[in-house]
Structure formats: structure tokens, C-alpha cells
Records
---
Amino acid sequence: VHMFKLKQQQAAAAAESAGGGGGGGGRTRTISTSRDRLLLKEMSELQEVLTQQRTTLHLPNPSVLSEFVLTISPAEGLWAGGHFKFIVRVPEAYNLAPPEVTCQTRVWHPNVSEQGEVCLSLLRLNSIDDFGWYPTRTLKDVVLGLESLFTDLCDFHDALNAEAADQYRCNPQAFKLKVSEYIRRYACRK
């Protein structure tokens, strides 16, 4: 179902970019920037990742590929059962600059602040490790990186949410209970 929806959204975006957008009083939108051309290509590549994972992509405006919502629903681990929404905004300077990602769902996590900021090396131009953003990275890397925050990339040593990281180190059981409470309160599908 999600694959079909994404294909419909891409088809609408492609039709609009080709001048077949209809409506709009005869105005047509052409894909003229390198960012838009890259995004059209990368959205197709994302389909294979989205079918394998428990992640969905939604384009609020199908003719604007540079802003979309990812919902990650981990199947296992501490955050299993939660549905975490991320807004991804792709700047005009893409792929020289990384996308900007904000978590819209409150989550008790060492790498996500209470305000929704996300700490992930590949989202930084200047990373202290060698995993920062490079022009060879794609949206597929961003999706895989965000999914990994709920599995193997969870970093308790270089935490954005120091309180969550400290709680995990000092009292792992209390940390797990708080993660569960946040999922129940903020991350359950309604």
C-alpha cells in the first residue's frame, strides 16, 4: 500500500515537472535545479529501502520533493511498537549540503533532543568522525541512518540528550521504562 502511494505521489510530481500538472491556471513547474533532478532520481531508489523496512514516506505536497515526512516504526529493540515521524527538508544546496531532519514525535532517546533535534553524523557537514555528509551520500543513506538510531547506531557516549544517556548509564531499567512511557504517550498510532 505504501509503495503504491509513493508511486502515485512520484507520478504526480513527475507530471507536474513535465508541464502536465493541470489546474493551476496554466502555470507549469519545471525541474530546473540539480537538487530537484537528484530528488526525482533518489525518490525512485528509496522505494527499495521502504519496501524492506518498516518505514513510510509521505509527500505532503506531491509536487515538492524537497520536503517529506518519514515515519519509522521499529520492529525490535527498545523503541519497538513506536511510530516516529521525522520531517526531512532538502536544501537548495543539496547534495553539497545534507538534508535537515527534525523529529516530530517526542521520544526518550540519547540522540534526539526534547525539541526534536537529531544527532546523526551523516547529517553534519563537519563531523568529528569520518561519517559526516559527503556529496556521494543520498536520501537512502539518510533513511538508513535514521532507522539505525533505533537499533545499532544509538550512541550513549556522544549524546544530544545527555539526561537520557545519563539515565541509561546509571539506571538502565528506569531508562527502558521511560522509553516505554514515551512510546505509550507520544508514539502510538491512534
---
Amino acid sequence: KLPSDSFKYLGWCDIEEHCVQGNQLRCPRVREGPSEEELFFRKEEHTLRRRKQVTDPEKWEKRLQENWENCAELNLSFQDLGDLYQVENFKRILRRLIRVEKLWLVDNSLTDLSAIKLPRCRELNVNKNHFTSFKQLPKIPQIQHLSLAENNITTLSGISDFRHTPLESLILKRNPCEFQERYRQLVFSNLPNLKILDGIPKLPEDCSPPDVRFFYRMCTIL
């Protein structure tokens, strides 16, 4: 085991005599440790010695110290969310991000954030997760830039929900839906205000009417 093993369930602000400040952490962990009972069954009860009882005033002080409600720009990528208690605590933090404008959640094995609302979020990066549908994304009414590269989105069903948002840029690279016939035309027909798709600006051929393929298959007999 590494020397840091006994500290793996502690938050950075719980470790005594540290010199790291919160604003120096680029991807801070937001998880809580398992219960004492779960530690016992894991045979990791030695970590209990490092954990202390926290009073209500200390809990409130810690909540204020995190100050997620006033966070405007946040990177919570690469959280390694392997256990259920980690996922639940992660979502608890996301629900507190009522003022966040830029949010990165890259490579977190996320599957469903539909219960999360980010009312001020303008830029969201959820690359390298496990989303299979646009319906599984959080509520982001003010979104302008959305990156969904390297997920598992198979169809464009639900993409029209973003029609009434100020979405300007969308990245869907390396998703199965990218291989759908007339992929770019379908995206732009559902999102008429979209300007950039997969890093490429809107082209004249992207504005073809939905039924254009019908005319391509017609022949005229004179």
C-alpha cells in the first residue's frame, strides 16, 4: 500500500498540516468516504482512526468552504466514480451548481444526469462518458457550447429539445449517430440556430431540406 492509503477517503480540507489551497486543485475529488460498516466489511477499518466526529458547526463551515453555489467555472473531470456512494455525492455537488457557467465533466463514466439542472451553464464538456441519448443530459436552458465527443449516442432523438436554447456549437464526434445518413443535415434541421457542428461551420449543403434524398432517387423519362 502507498503511504497515502490511509488518507484516500479524506477531503483535502480534512488533512492536517497541508499547504495546498482549494484554488490550486484543478480536478478536486467531490466524493465522501464509505460508512464505517462498509469499511469493516472491506477490511479497511484502519482508516477509521484517521476519521473524526464532525460537529454540526464544522459541517456548516465545511459547506461554506466548498461554496459550490457561487462557483462560476469548474473542472470535475476524471473523478474515477467507481462506487455508488461516490456517484451520489458527485450528483449532490452538481445540484448545488446553480451559478456555474463553464463546467467540465470529462471521463467520469456518467450515464444519466437528467435530474440535474444547471440554469446558467453556457459551456458544458461531457466527453468520454456513457451517455446514450440526449434525454440523459442535464437541463441546460442557457447552453451555447456543448461537447459530447466519445459517448454512445446512437440516434438524434431528443436533440430538438435544444431548439429553444442559444446553442451555437455542438460536438458529437466519435458517437454512433455520426454515421447516420445525412447526419449533418438532420442536426441543422433540428437546430436552425446552430453555427458549428464538430468544429466545422454550417455549410450551404447542410441546409438541404429534410426530404432532399427523395429527389435524388427520382428519374425523369421523356
